[in-house]
Amino acid sequence: MTGTEGPGQVGVPLVARRDDISALEAYHSPQLDVPVRLNTNESPYPPPPDFVDAWLSALREVPLNRYPDRSARGLRSAIAQQQGTTADRVFCANGSNEVLQTLFLTYGGFGRRAAVFEPTYALHSHIARITGTEVVVGERREDFALDIDAAAALIAETAPHLVLVCSPNNPTGTVEPREAIEALLAVAPGIVVVDEAYGEFADWSAVDLVSEERPLVVARTYSKVWSMAALRLGFCVGPRWLVRELDEVVLPYHLAAPTQLAGTVALRFESEMAARVQRLVDGREELVVELSKLEGVDVFPSGANFVLIRPHGRGHRLWELLVDRGVLVRDFSEWPRLDDCLRVTVGTVEENQRFLAAMREALPEVTEA
Ligand SMILES: *Cc1c(COP(=O)(O)O)cnc(C)c1O
């Protein structure tokens, strides 16, 4: 350890990370330089050029010597209008990851617990640990849906301050029905967070369940649906008291003026965005149909912009064979509960065709033998 000793602290190393975070593994998704990149669930389409023009000209009017609007009022009202709620129920941050981090800073922390249901988005437990929150782990069913009875038992036993549900779930694509979220709300003693990073690709949203009486908060992002991953903007919809408490915790002026503007201006292009979502949903359905025709691979139903598959053979070898054919997907084959699974992001029509062609060639190689 590279510690030094502080005055009066002989033997206590001060230049050392917290013990509880030095055990953490960094979160990363390996990038390779291949022609078809279907590994990070971004939109394959850039945002509409008219949006970029409108955003840049609005940006010219911004007094750059001044701090941005601390409470992002314009952006909150625009989002509220789009979501059918009020601005005081909306909290915005730099990506929904910062929304989640702020929720953990406010309601998690030392001596507190958060429940997650694996396999799910790895960053939920990662942010929990960084904020000193203990993680209690529940298991999903074989088909990756929540096991409501097991979840209720875990919640009763551990009394978590936060319950996290990702729906559609990354990386499995599973959409939880409204009854599942209501069942969790009925038993959870703390806050229930529904991470809807892929909400626009699914057929219902828990945003409609948000009210002052329920400790429910729904997190959303501009990264996946709005083709704006580079701009880092996410938000959540929750009860007013919760939004006020998040506002007190987050750093002042955390949301830069260009980001606030981008989020507001983007909402003027809703029909273009909706068309992109529809194209990706169509692409997903076609991928599922074509993959289901292949021998030797399980295809899990998805309500997101990606599909999880499990070959009846070595998943990591299949991943390599796809890379050899210029197609990068996300390799989950070594992850607990996801043996041999790969996740493919829905791309453009051409990218999807190239992925399918590579699969038709590569799959027999891993399933024979
Ligand atoms: C991508 C993703 C996010 C984070 O998105 P941001 O880019 O931080 O808005 C949050 N949750 C899930 C499940 C995701 O897949």
Task: Explain briefly what this protein structure is.
The chain has twelve helices and twelve strands. It has 369 residues and is an alpha/beta fold.
How does this structure look, described?
The chain is an alpha/beta fold and 369 residues long. The chain has 2 domains: 19-46 and 272-367, Aspartate Aminotransferase, domain 1 (Alpha-Beta Complex), CATH 3.90.1150.10; 50-269, Type I PLP-dependent aspartate aminotransferase-like (Major domain) (Aspartate Aminotransferase, domain 2), CATH 3.40.640.10. It is 38% helix and 15% strand. It has a 7-stranded mixed beta sheet, sandwiched between helices. Strands 1-11-12-10-9 form a 5-stranded mixed beta sheet.
Which labels suit this protein?
disordered N terminus; 2 domains; 12 helices; binds pyridoxal-5'-phosphate; 369 residues; Aspartate Aminotransferase, domain 1; alpha/beta; 5-stranded mixed β-sheet; Aspartate Aminotransferase, domain 2; 7-stranded mixed β-sheet; single chain
